[in-house]
Amino acid sequence: PDFGDGPSLAAWAAALAMVTILEFIVFTSFLSERRIVLANALELMSVSGFLLLGLTWPLGELTPTGLLRLQTLGVLVICAAALIARLQIRRRPEVEPVPTWTEPTRAFATYGLPRGGITGLDVAIITIGPWLLRTEPAQAGYLLVALMIVQVIQACLGPITQIASIVAASLVGRGEMARLKEEVQLVLGGTLYVATLALAILVPWSGYLLAFWLREPEFVAGVHYYFSWVVWGILPIALFQALRGIIEMRWFAPWNLYTLLSAASVQLLVFVVGQGLYGRAAAVRAAVVATFWTLGALTLGVLDTSWWRPLRYWGIGRLIGVAAAVALVNRLLAEQ
């Protein structure tokens, strides 16, 4: 509303949505051939890579429309190049029998179609907060930058999710549930330790890193207002991203879809309740954090306690102690 560049911004947003479809096709093609590095490099750039480049080294005036244009054209170029290269390399001279479509169609309708909303909801979860701030474009931009950093962290967890999914599919196919439970415990423990220690380092340095990156004090203050809260959602969102692939392979029901729908509902509910008490910006900030924790909690709820060992198995006390010590040291170093 009352935004002069609104039509152009909407047009480029629609174009980016269409280009994302092409990116998904290329990404899944690489993933199906187990080209994990190429798939995740493509995913990283399509999620926020070009946006980060545009913010770091702007080619012209830094505007939302300019950033969307750069993201759209960048993703289109790399996806088209990757697709052309793949089609040129992949040759099948042998004659293959004509496939029957009955079984694939049935599998798509019963398993694939309900999961079609997962990718859309995964993106929508991130965009609900900025949409709620649509009447305050500056605040929406600050929140988008903060969420972009979280998306980069999600992209870094992509290889873990994909490898875990491949292993889980193999174990489920062979009926080795005991080994699958060991995989869940390994992924859960590794993600818990990495995310907690990352928080212990990132939180004390976040203000200084934002100042080094954004430079402009007004931008730094605006982004830090949201990131200082959003950063506490890294642990639950990391658990969701790390375990979602295993959940897809283990259960026929689309539990990840239900988890995302519940998290979106929680985000809207927290915003409605908090808006009148604390204001729009503070309510959105709290709603985004509540969304991340809902994703993590429901993911662990799907696995239930039979997939966990007692908390002492994970050394939670030692982890908290080490994380507190690391956070204290980094806090003292950051203040000097």
Fold and architecture overview:
This protein is mainly alpha-helical. The chain is built from 14 helices and no strands. The mean pLDDT is 77. Helix 2 packs antiparallel against helix 3, helix 6 crosses helix 9 and helix 8 packs antiparallel against helix 10. The radius of gyration is 21 Å and the shape is globular.
**Count of helical regions:** 14
Low-confidence segments, given as residue ranges, are none
Tell me the series of helices and strands, N- to C-terminal: HHHHHHHHHHHHHH
- What is the residue-averaged pLDDT? 77
Largest sheet: none
Provide the β-strand percentage band: under 5%
The share of residues in helices is over 70%
Overall shape: globular
**What class would the helix/strand composition place it in?**
mainly alpha
Round the Cα radius of gyration to an integer and report it: 21 Å
First-to-last CA distance: 45 Å
Tell me the total number of β-strands.
0
